[in-house]
Write a structure and sequence with these properties.
The longest helix has 11 residues. The termini are far apart. The protein has a domain of about 55 residues. The protein has a 4-stranded antiparallel β-sheet, with no helix packed on it. Strands 3-2-5 form a 3-stranded antiparallel β-sheet, with no helix packed on it. It is built from 1 helix and 7 strands. With about 100 residues, it is mainly β.
Length: about 100
C-alpha cells in the first residue's frame, strides 16, 4: 500500500483558498499600575521621588509603591491613600 495518496490528502486538507489560519491574537497589555496615594493640599517646598528621581510635587501628584515624598522647611502635604486614609506630612518630613 502506498503512502503517497494519504500524504497528498493530508497536504490538501491543510490548504484552503483563504490561506493559512489567522494567528492568535496577542495578549492584552498589562494593566496600568494604580497609585498607592495622591498628594493633596501641597504647600511650600514638596518634592515627590519616583525611581529616586525628584520633581516638585503639586496637588494631584500620584504616588506609587516605592515612591517617596519630602517636605522642605515650610512644606506641607496631605497624602490620601487608596483605602481612604489620610496622612499629614509636616515640614522637614519624609515618607
Amino acid at each position: 500500500m502506498s503512502l503517497r495518496p494519504l500524504l497528498v490528502a493530508l497536504v490538501l486538507a491543510g490548504c484552503t483558498e483563504d490561506g493559512p489560519p489567522p494567528a492568535a491574537a496577542p495578549p492584552p497589555p498589562p494593566a496600568a499600575p494604580r497609585p498607592a496615594a495622591v498628594l493633596q493640599e501641597v504647600r511650600g517646598a514638596v518634592t515627590a521621588f519616583h525611581r529616586q528621581v525628584g520633581a516638585p510635587a503639586r496637588d494631584g501628584t500620584e504616588l506609587f509603591p516605592g515612591d517617596a515624598v519630602e517636605t522642605g522647611e515650610e512644606g506641607r502635604a496631605l497624602l490620601r491613600f487608596a483605602g481612604g486614609r489620610l496622612v499629614s506630612l509636616e515640614p522637614d518630613g519624609r515618607i
